[in-house]
Amino acid sequence: MADNSPVTVAAGARAAAKDKPDKPRPKRQQAPLRVRMLRHAWLYVLLVPGVVYFAIFKYAPMYGVTIAFQDYLPFLGFSGSPWVGLKHFETLFTSPDFFRILRNTLLLALLNVIFVFPAPIVVALLLNEIRLSILKRAIQSSIYIPHFLSWTIVAALTYLLFALDVGPITQLMNSLFGARFNFLADPDWFRPLIILQTLWKSTGWGTIIYLAALAGVNPNLYEAARIDGANRWQQMRHITLPAIQSTIVIMAILMSGNLLDTGFEQIYLMTNALNRSVAEVFDTYVYFLGITQGAYSYSTAVGLFKAVVGIILIFGANWLARRFKQNGLF
Amino acid sequence: MTPLTRRLTAGAACAAVAAVGLTACGDDEPADLDTISMMVPLLGSQAPAADSELQQAVEEMIGKELDLTWVPNSDYNDRMTVTLASDDLPHVMVVQGKVPAFVQSAQAGAFWDLTDKLADYPNLTAEDDQILLNSSINGDNYGVFRLRDPMRTAVIIRQDWLDNLGLELPETTDDLYDIARAFTEDDPNDSGDDDTYGVVIPQWPGGYATASPYDVIETWFGAPNGWGEQGGQLVPGFDTPEFLAANQFVKQMIDEGLINSDFATMDSGTWDQPFFNGQGGIIIDVSSRAGVIMNLFKDQDPDNYGDYVAMTGNLAGPDGVLRSYPTIGYNGFLAISRQSVQTEEELDEVLSVLDAMSSQEAQILLNNGIEGRNFEVQDGFAVPIEGGDSDVEVLRNDVTSFAQLGTQSNGWLAYDVLPEGGPERELWDHRQEVHESDLATAVHNPAQPLVSETYVTRGAQLDLIIADARIQYLAGQIDEDGLAAEIERWYAEGGQQVVDEMNELYAQLD
Question: Which residues does chain B have within 8 Å of residue A96's beta carbon, measured at their own beta carbons?
Fold first, then answer.
């Protein structure tokens, strides 16, 4: 038994997953494009609605991005507003607000990567180990619930629970540590509260996709591993994790594109005068400038910058994934 | 532009706007002034129906159809910014003050300059030229202002607590401090526990100089209201020794526990609750809140509800001088779009409609309703008619909405509502008296009509620097040096430019 090391078990699992080795395809003379298009004409017809949808609702509005390079005034319109080139980007990068906001946004993004991203994986793995299916289903359903609450309700609950002197959690913490906690106003507590809220609200829902991936694992593999003497920890490490690895990578790449989306509503609702220095992020800044102040051009420039960073991140993550021999998104 | 590219551009603009979450796009139509379209904030929960009894009555009076777009008040400014970016503006739009998007659009020519036109219409001629000037942008009026009480500041105090402790209403800020201390330490509710405090202050959403309790106390201490004049020059109100003195005073009260410790985070929607529940005993706000709170007590204790709420006006500062914090006298204005109202003739037609809507009959219709249906007149007051069928119910609800359409810039000609019972009548009379006498000592903001270019683009961020620094100082996050440093930051990040521009405009105004 001792010679059946987990390594061989894992190798077996991998071989089972890849029973069709890649062979170079024989080269074939390709028909001209026109002929191929005619042959598959109906496929192209089916493609049309999708193309039209993207053209109208995704690409046409991008024309509006031009106002980031103008001093846009609605009354003068796209064609009448003066062209100012990169002025708004210069203003942004030289603004004292910029580094504060970038830092706040990146820190929240980093905390999201460290705490929020792995949470559903861990919970999914734990749920996967529960044998009693009725218990498993009960837990699953109950941890989905917070996903359906709006941020307004989450924020209101937080204000109730963490209120200075009277909130139940504040009272508990005060008596445990003998200090006077001011969770809602103390800048040091802002990020932990935000991460706690996000964990509470999104973890359960996030497990769905991992549980689906776990359901697809061939039970024979576990059986084989048990016969080979692998304990549950070893089974998880060498069968379960490799099986959902590609799902994790895809989720990570998808998440990287939204990394700078820190959740406008959530942060907006939790901001006050005392924690604004750590709370202001790109999303709230764009709202504040664009919608409440009517600085159309400047706020578009800020949003565009954020979008460009998002694209760089998603390509970067994809490149990294392929670099490490994982299936990328594209 | 060819019609096609124009249409495409408009489509792209619509899509861009839709991405922000709102849609307000339509086709260009020739101006049809049989129907006047208006965008109006909705304060209640139920928007009046287009065929409502009240709307029909108003339409009959002005001889035009109305096409009203009701937008919830809480979203109004956001929605207005987005509507300005669309190509489908209503003829007339309520603008809630000189918000940047409006100022920029108006100066670019999106709205009619009415400065030389209003005097031609008897009901649009301002009763008070100061308010007309205040509502202007550097002397140019882009709208008909909506008149409001010029004085509203009040100190609201638990009457029963004063009686328990044998105290009188405050007259000075020192009295306020003494009462707050007594309310905190001397067990005003006879509970035997230390369960009360003095002043209730909630989280304040606005920036500097937005009628917060802090702004009011600063004025009592002699700081300018927003901007002050020193030797012919305008200076920002927070860069004065009086500003610091006032906030030292507030900070002392906070440090001694005379103000609720969650003043930076308490939900402003629950401001009345600590007062009503007997935790805090003083509120510094507008006088109408006294009536609202009295109503709360009325539900709880219908026999003695008059014994709980006392109210007084502004307080004299430490130097014994009474300075009152006024309102700006108006609440936004009705602006006329030049895109939907294109010629002078059309403008005249729209202004005539607004003129008709400010006549005494129309003011009564908009603010009181239909006489004999939902109210009756008694001693010059409007008395609501209780009960009635569901149509009357609807009418009562619609009146609160339609009041938003009225300007009353020619003066208030409608009826005041008769206070319900004895205590309410007493409170109402007292309010009128206090407002009247406080008005004589009002500290006005000399920079009210001025809008500087830098302020339009950076003002809201700059205001926030000061408002946040003030709260941080009061909470003990920064000390006086830190507060001074934040004021320096205000100057460095564009404030100095604002000061220079404001002084230039101020010199031109005279």
Answer: 493
